[in-house]
Amino acid sequence: MQRTALVTGGSRGIGEAISKTLKSQGYNVAATYAGNDEKAAAFTEETGIKTYKWDVSDYDACVEGIAKVEEENGPIDILVNNAGITRDAPFHKMKLEQWKQVIDTNLSGMFNMTHPVWPGMRERGFGRIINISSLNGQKGQFGQVNYSSAKAGDIGFTRALAQEGAAKGITVNAVCPGYIATEMVMAVPEKVREAIIGQIPVGRLGEPEEIAACVSFLASEEAGFMTGATLSANGGQFFS
Ligand code: CAA
């Protein structure tokens, strides 16, 4: 039976690797994106994976978008909440808007996307919710009070919802990537990035495919006994 997976932020960065990996494993994959039409079109051209444009921080847009995805692809069995943004600044310089944008996207976005798919998963007795949190939600990061708060919230969301899904065949897990070679990490000033790499025992940034491998395991039928877990992939930078 071919299962359908929806990956938010699934046409770029870590999300792109997740979409491609799930497709290569035989899942029927759809991806959302928020802004970059050109990249999304190139991604669909290359992979054949359909993309849908909406902002995960907008609840009504999620309800509408998910209805369309399900109409065209069938019920969503696997939801990967990957979409995320950074608005880094030391706290004394952080604007309310930077706080709100990151909380609305990285934390409320998880509610907005999961809430509409949840009743269907409960009815069908199967579901996989995979939430992309972060190393920086586990340990906190200078310059990321907003992002660390949202990503720590994602772990709480995962642990609470896992308990509610367990009796209905729905697993809810989090993956915490460390520093991965994507545009998001490349946007960090070079000197800061070099210092960060110096703190990674493996001695390099991670690859998006290394996060996709974690997601693919959590999506599988075999992972049914694993729920509420936090899977860390950070090159040994932090253990929790
Ligand atoms: N610890 C302690 N002090 C630090 C520091 C750190 N990690 N980083 C900077 N500082 C200090 C600086 O030395 C400086 O001190 P002085 O004023 O005494 O000289 C002070 O903080 C201010 O630094 P800047 O002038 O650089 O401040 P800024 O406003 O230009 O930039 C910043 C600050 C935006 C936080 C910048 O340092 C930065 O981008 N840091 C990286 C943040 C980071 O790791 N982001 C992760 C993005 S990737 C991601 O989020 C994916 C994921 O999940 C892992």
Question: Which architecture would the CATH scheme give at its second level?
Answer: 3-Layer(aba) Sandwich
User: What is the assigned CATH homologous superfamily?
Assistant: NAD(P)-binding Rossmann-like Domain
Strand and helix order: EHEHEHEHEHHEHHHE
Low-confidence stretches: none
- N/C terminus separation: 36 Å
Beta strand %: 15-25%
CATH level-1 class: Alpha Beta
* Helical content class: 40-55%
Written account of the structure:
With about 240 residues, the chain is of the alpha/beta class. The chain has a single domain (about 5-230), classed as NAD(P)-binding Rossmann-like Domain (Rossmann fold, 3-Layer(aba) Sandwich), CATH 3.40.50. The chain is built from nine helices and seven strands, in the order E-H-E-H-E-H-E-H-E-H-H-E-H-H-H-E. The chain has helices at about 15-25, 35-45, 60-75, 95-125, 135-140, 145-165, 185, 190-200, 210-220, and strands at about 5, 30-35, 50-55, 80, 125-130, 170-175, 230-235. A seven-stranded parallel sheet has the order 3-2-1-4-5-6-7, with helices on both faces. Strand 1 (about 5), helix 1 and strand 2 form a beta-alpha-beta unit. The longest helix is centred in the middle third of the chain and has 29 residues, at about 95-125. Bound molecules: acetoacetyl-coenzyme A.
